[in-house]
C-alpha cells in the first residue's frame, strides 16, 4: 500500500488516493460477506458487494510483474522532499523513513 500512497502523495493528489480507497471499499466485498450489507446505503457497513476481492490475485500479479521498481513492503526508504506536510508530521523524527505506526521502527526513529 505504501508505494501506491507515495505515488499519489508525490504528485500532491492524496484526494484521489482517498477516492480510490473509497471505491475499493464500496466494491471489495462479495454478497457472501458477513460484515457488510447492500440493502441500506445510509446504514453501517454498506457496500455494493461487487466482489472486487475476486481480482486481488490478478492485481497483485500484474503489479509485481509490471512495476519492478516497487520496493518490498519490509524495506524502508527515505521520504522524498516533496512529501506533504501531513506525511512529514507523522514521522517519529526528521530522519525516520517509515511512519510512526510501523512496528519495525526503521533506523532514525
**Tally of DSSP β-strands:** 0
Helix percent reads 25-40%
* Oligomeric category: single chain
Number of helices: 4
Proportion of β residues? under 5%
Tally of structural domains? 2
Order of helices and strands: HHHH
Sheet having the most strands: none
Q: Could you tell me the radius of gyration in angstroms?
A: 17 Å
Mean pLDDT: 74
Low-confidence stretches: 84-91, 99-106
Distance between the first and last residues' Cα: 21 Å
Shape: flat
| Structural class label | mainly alpha
In short:
The chain has 109 residues and is mostly helical.
Task: List the SSEs and their pairings.
Elements: H1 2-10, H2 14-28, H3 56-66, H4 85-89
Helix pairs in contact: 1-2
Could you explain how this protein is built, in words?
37% of the residues lie in helices and 0% in strands. It folds into 2 domains: 2-70, no CATH class; 76-109, no CATH class. It is flat and about 40 Å long. With 109 residues, the chain is mostly helical. It has 4 helices and no strands. The chain has helices spanning 2-10, 14-28, 56-66, 85-89. The two termini are 21 Å apart. 4% of the residues are buried.
Structural descriptors:
109 residues, mainly alpha, 2 domains, 4 helices, flat
